[in-house]
Amino acid sequence: MIAPVEIAGVAKVVPERIVTNFEMEKLVDTSDEWITKRTGIHTRHIVTEETAVGMAVEAAQKAIAHAGIDKNDVGLIIGSTITSEYVTPSMADYVKKMLQIDAVAMDISAGCSGFIFSLTTASSLMDTLHIDTAVVIASETLSKYTDWTDRSTCVLFGDGAGAVVLKKSSKPCLHYPILAGTADTEDVLYGYRERRNTPFCKTESIEKEYLHMKGSEVFTYAVGAVEDILRQLLEKCGDQPYNKIIPHQANEKIIDYVIRKMEMKYEQCFINIGEYANTSSATIPIAMFDAYEKGWLKKGDRVALVGFGAGLSCGGVVIDWTI
Ligand code: ACO
User: Fold this and answer.
1) What is the CATH number of the domain that holds 149?
2) What is the domain count for the chain?
């Protein structure tokens, strides 16, 4: 069961440093034209001094302030990340410490699908543990796991964080969560953390630490998974279909393809990949914040969130927007 909850607050935090495609031209053999045409990306925010955990703390504080709640009301914090600086405690535990609150806290690692997985886990746990208020944060610093000499991946990623506050409500506003996965037998998307030398274990090659991706295979998986989830959600919505979509921002071409297949209007889909590139699990909450702030997402809208990523994994959920 998922608890009847609403989204009461939303926030984003992105690093100050903006890196343009023209700057990427100086790092690798690429061009603004290639990146723009193949992905829709123009710029990305990249950490200099910022950290995944630091951005998570700030995003949580901002979302709590936006919701207008007392931080001590938060009983659950779920962090979504694949790039936390800490092996332990979890990023969510660190947020709990910095906010000085007592709460259940844990992280979820589900690649770019992580935010949808975390949202679903939070609303399920709110029901199971009778918790009234939760914070879900996605914070990522993919730039630290990017091979900056590999033009096929380094142009695609950016850093950032987004957070939402979930509050129990009399009317359920989060509906029909779908989480799914398929075995990545061909290793189309993975990153490997180096094991340190120990008296018993030889260090693996550091090269493997980087994110490795077979782009066209991920593309093929993504278009199929996103369309499938959107169709399933549409069916579950019955006579109250969603009117807008906020998809994971990995490549504008994936989004274009799905809009066409779903026979939706371009304006029904929020796209901000041009500014931030792919920030992994943070793309959806960052887009939710921008969509809300720009007035694209309005009270009364029914919006489908849909994501996909490493695992391979995918997920979607429908939200009635109430703020
Ligand atoms: N600049 C210039 N040329 C490039 C670049 C670049 N940055 N990158 C690759 N190329 C070249 C290739 O070398 C290749 O050249 P060749 O034809 O001489 O061999 C050519 O461009 C075409 O390469 P493709 O890989 O076939 O290009 P494609 O059109 O498939 O675009 C891309 C690649 C953008 C990666 C696309 O496949 C994609 O977006 N895939 C999905 C990625 C994704 O969704 N990832 C999400 C998950 S990420 C995560 O979970 C952390």
Assistant:
1) 3.40.47.10
2) 2
Kindly name the residue from 45, 112, 175, 314 that is annotated as catalytic.
Answer: 112
How high is the mean pLDDT of the chain? 95
**Cβ partners under 8 Å of residue 128, min gap 6:** 1
Segments forming the whole domain that contains residue 150:
5-172
Please tell me which residue in 248, 251, 272, 314 is annotated as part of the active site. Answer: 248
Verify whether residue 173 is a known catalytic residue: no
Does the CB atom of residue 305 touch ligand 1 within 6 A? no
CB distance 165 to 63 below 8 Å: yes
> Is the same domain home to 123 and 244?
no
pLDDT tens track for 63-93: 999 999 999 999 999 999 999 999 999 999 9
State in Å: Cα 178 to ligand 1 middle: 28
Residues 103 and 228 reside in one and the same domain: no
Q: CA angle 46-204-83, nearest 5°?
A: 25
Q: Are residues 153 and 205 in the same domain?
A: no
What is the tens place of the pLDDT at every residue in 39-56? Answer: 999 999 999 999 999 999
| pTM for the full predicted model | 0.96
Residues 187 and 261 in one domain: yes
pLDDT at residue 140, rounded to an integer: 98
* Residue of 116, 210, 218, 283 best suited for mutating to test ligand 1, as the one with most atoms within 8 Å of CB: 218
Distance (Å) from CA 221 to ligand 1 centroid: 14
For residues 74 and 203, membership in a common domain is answered with no
Atom of ligand 1 nearest to the CA of 30: 1
Q: Ligand 1 test: best mutation among 22, 24, 33, 38, most atoms within 8 Å of CB?
A: 38
Residue that has been written with the tokens 């931030």 in this structure: 276
Kindly state the tokens that stand for 159.
């850093």
158 plus 195 within the same structural domain:
no
112 is catalytic: yes
**Same domain, yes or no: 83 and 208:** no
Distances (CA, A) of 298 to 1, 8, 248, 287, 321: 27, 13, 20, 14, 7
Q: Are residues 118 and 207 in the same domain?
A: no
